[in-house]
Structure formats: C-alpha cells, structure tokens
C-alpha cells in the first residue's frame, strides 16, 4: 500500500519542493515551530515554571523530542494510544490527562511494567480502585494525580471534599503513588478578551487554591499542580498556583487562537506554523475556484480555514463536500489556474492534525522532512 | 508502535466481545451491511442498472470486494490514494470521480502502466492535455470521462458546448479513450422531501439529457452515463438517463440520511450499520455523563451523534472538546456507571469513517473481524 509519504519523500531537499507536494497536505513551518518552542521555553525559564506540553496537539514523537530538548519535564497525553506511541519512542514523564474508562487500567499498568514512565489522573473512587487493582496485579507502583474540576465541568472531582477523599485513597494504596493534582481550565483558553480572561481566571484560580489548601490541611499537599494551556499560561504564571503547564496549541496556533490576546492588548508571542496546502482542481466558475481539500482535510468544528498564500487578497474559503473546497473571490476566473497551490491556516489545530498521517516539514520553500502523525487515531 | 487493532484483535470470536472494545471504536454491524448490499444489488438487478459504488464512503477493500461479489461493475474513488490502495488489493473498474490537480496525472498513468484498471474524469481542456501527455509518456491508453456540471456547481463542464469540445479532444487523442460522461447531482442527495427531490431531479436530469443529446448529435455518444447517489438513485432509475450508479452511503446510512425519504413516503430500504462506541469516563454531574468520544471521533459538519444504545431513553449527545462528549439526560447521576458503553449513529458517514483506522466488525454482540480503513487519509 502506497501512502502519500512515499510519493512526496523524493522531494525532500529540492528547491521549491514545498510547492510540488501532492495535496491535500499538512505543512509545518519548521522555523516558526522552533521559534514557538523557544519562546515558550524562555517564558517558562524566566518564571521558573515547568512545562509538560500536551502531545494531543501534535501526536508526534519528533515534536515531543524538540520540546524535551528545550527543557520540558515530560509530555501530556490524552489517550492510551498516545501514551503507547510516545513511550515506544522513549518519551518520559508521560501524564495521561483524562480519566480513562476503567477497562484500560490493566493496559496502563502493563505499559508501566514494561518500563514506560506514565502517570494517570482520577476523579472517582471507582477509578482509583481500578488503577490500584491493575497496578497490584502488574506488580508496579502507578503514579496518580487527582483531577480537579475548576470550572470546565467536564472531568474532575466535584468538590474539595472528594479531592481530599481521593488523595487519601491514593496515598494509602500500596500500589499507587500520590503525585499531585490537575486543575485544567479548558473553558478559559479561548476567552478572547484579555481583561475578561484575567478576571475569570482569578476566580477559578481561587477555587483551585482553596482545594489545594484543603489538601494541605488534610496533610496531603500536592507535589505537583499541573494545568494551564496556551490561552491562559501567562495569567496562570502571574497568579502562581499552577506550577506545571500543559500548553499545546502554542506550537501551531490556528484561526481560533489568533484572536486570543496574549499579554498586553494585541500582543501575540507565538506565530502560525501549521497549514493545509490544497490544489485548484476546477476553474469553471466566474467567482470561485474549486480545490481538493474539504471536510476530510479540515477540522469543521471551528471557524472556516483562513487563506494565507496562493489566492487573491480577500479571497475566502468554504467547504464543498467531503473532498472539495471553494475559494471565493471577486472578479473573473482568469485569477487562478488549474493546479495552483493554496495554503490555509488550520481552523482548530488538534483535530486538524488528527486528519493527516504526515507533517510535511518545510523551511521556506523547501521540504526538509516528513514526520508521521504517529499517535493519530483513537483509543 | 501498538495500534488499537492489536489490543482488540484478541477479542475476535468471544461472546459479548462487542462490549469489551477499547473505545472510541468504529463499529460495523456486518448483518446490516450485508442486507444493505443485497437490497441495493437487488434494486439494480431489477432495473438493469449497473452499480459502481463509491469507495470514498468506506475506503475499505474488504467492503469493495463484498460489493463486487454482489455484482458491482467497478468502484468509484475520490482520490489518487484511494485508487492506489484499491488497485493494490486487486479491485478493478476503478473510476476517480473528481478532476485531480494536473500534477497527479503522471502518477495515474504510472498506476495504469503497472496494471491498475483506472479511469478518470476531466472538466477542462488543460486537464485533458495533462492526462494525454502523461498517458503518452507512460505508453498507456487512459480511459477518460467528461465530468458534467448538472446543478451541483462544484466540478464539471459549464455547458454542453464545452462537454462536446472535451469529448472530441479525448476521442481524438491517441493515448486517451473516451469512456462516457459523469453527471453527479450531489446537491440533490439530501433533499429530504421526496416530492421536492423528484421535481428538482426531473429538472436537472433534463439538463443532463440535453448534454447527452448534444454529444450524440456531435457523433460522440457516451457509452456510459455515470452518476447518482444514495439519495436519488431510485428517482434516477425511474428517470432513465443515468445507467451506472455511484451509490455510497447506502452501506451505512447516518443521521443525515435517516431523514431522506426513499421511495414512498417514509419508506427506507436501507438501515443503519455504522456506529461509534464510546465509554463513560466521568459521572460526577447530576444531569450528564462524560464520554471518551469528542471532536476527534465524530464528523462535526452534520447533526449531533444520535445515541442508539447504552444510555437512558431520550438522552442526547453533545461535544465537550477534542476527546470528550457528554450524554445529557434528566435525572440523577445514578443512571450511568463509569465504563458504561454507549453506541451512537454517526452524523455523516464519509468523513466519520475517515477519522478511524479500523472497522470493528460485529454480528450481534460478537466481534467477528477487524478491517483496516485502508485508504484513509489524503492525497
């Protein structure tokens, strides 16, 4: 079975090869990626924060290693599969940030037994029991965080009382090690207005601090308080409760994050590095050209793709079914030619990466490498 | 690298194994799939229609072979990659139904040279030239259809005049063979109301017939008129212009197609066969449970997933980010337990299949096989 990588791999190193890719293709600007990684690492170093970036954004051991080289203390994963793939590539300090279905507990314990460095989170007594039994069975000690709900309403313990109860259960279990707490404020990452984000973060951070205080009072002080994201990390850093940051989207940005103000009004320390490249396949209409990238190439939960290169200024992108898009413009159909390459900023980076098998890594106009989206998929 | 198949493959043949899958998982009801294939084959046989089902829905050589065994004359593909994968598995009569970017022409010609049985479509003189040059270079004769725009406004020739021009160019080119025309009415597949669909189909079918008449008059009668889809095939069959049907979604149905009336009011000859199975991972809320299937497990361009099994009657599904969903219900959180398995009908089958690497094929409650979504991905 031939995959797209085989067809494009011969282009690596050729001048202008970025524009000879078979499309649709996921294109990663290596220079911009490196700048984003360095900027985040520098922020963390300045504030003495730890970074445990989230692998669910990139699903790539290549990128995990770049983050590790820049000083990250580990890598977050959102699924068993991501943890498996990253562990197989030697990535350490893995933290699965979502409570898993209890039937996955034995598989986690077996991975740890095989040498993987994986921690997990829990938010219910039944899951503590499942991990405890699995770890005992596998003959390992499993590192466990208590997942706290600090406003997102998704996973996490519903109160300080339950958090203390779970921390105590973990602490008292011979096959479990109490590692700390997780307080991820996913609901605040995309609050566009900086002042409003600061106000809401202050409120939810006080809730988080109150739970931490209750744990300290119960003689269960968390070693690590992990959380944060691209949208809030700088405010979290100022607030001071969170000590370890699960930032992910800063690597790529996307249309959604472009509107989130970082730091001072309008300041944005990170830059877009991830694009979908598509080709024009039909020019028979007077005010739009049809492309080969549709619902199977873009994450459709967010805003439409933003055209950044290859189309007339002001042109817009819309979906035309599973395999097609349309570039709308004012004027005649002489504007674009069959085969023209157009690059769009991805609407929402995490699910968009998940649609592709490969990153086409470029520096300027040259394809320099192809990296698999190795942890793509489910379970 | 361990993939989900390795973990679930040991369950094949075990009683009740459908409910032991690691989730999120794409589940295919083999009995329902077989009934759908048989029903469509029987309709085609009764009306002496040919079937060239669309592989973009399933991307699976396993399913392509089942369709072939039921009498299909070939298989449609939406991409170079799909054609490559299907050809490598020995599937014949492949038709790539979308005009490709011209830089893919040499790859198509090379596949034909290597023995693949692939036809293509064109809707522009430049693409005829690209295919002609590539076929000449590869020393093959490439079979080419003229793609007609009969109301969809996506690809296809804009007029009968251009259709005649392209058919003449193909017919006169030594390395190309004029195979017929394609008139796909994608814009009518989801017109829910049967009477309205019939009226609009009548209008666009007359346009198609007029182009065919112009080709006949120009001494370029199309051997094959290919088109149709799950939503219109029965009306197309009555109308009589289209002779070869590119039906795809009938295999699975989905939430979108459930509302499309087939034949008499409310009659639906096909049945849902494709589901996403997810597990409950959080029960800390009073009126919803959180699951492990979110934006990375569902096609989000359509309606929300429809819960069919495993949750209280009347429960609804909503997305809670990349990896999570929420099952909303009235009542207390005693209704669901951690690890409960819930199955949802997919919102839109084609892009939803594309998110997964494997079909988990079940008969009743037993996992009987695991099939790769072999042509998943892009290019």
Secondary structure class of chain A reads alpha/beta
The most extensive interface between chains reads:
A-B, 76 and 76 residues
- Report the average pLDDT across residues of chain A: 94
CATH architecture of the largest domain in chain A: Alpha-Beta Barrel
Could you tell me the CATH topology label of the largest domain in chain A. TIM Barrel
How much of the sequence of chain A is in beta strands?
15-25%
What is the CA-CA span between the terminal residues of chain A? 24 Å
Described by the principal axes of the CA atoms, the overall outline of chain A is globular
Main sheet summary of chain A: 9 strands, mixed
Quaternary form: homodimer
Give me the count of strands of chain A. Answer: 17
Superfamily at the CATH H level of the largest domain in chain A? Alanine racemase
Number of domains of chain A: 2
GO molecular function (chains A, B): D-serine ammonia-lyase activity
Keywords (chains A, B): Lyase
GO biological process, one term (chains A, B): D-serine catabolic process
Domain D-serine dehydratase-like (chains A, B): 273-363
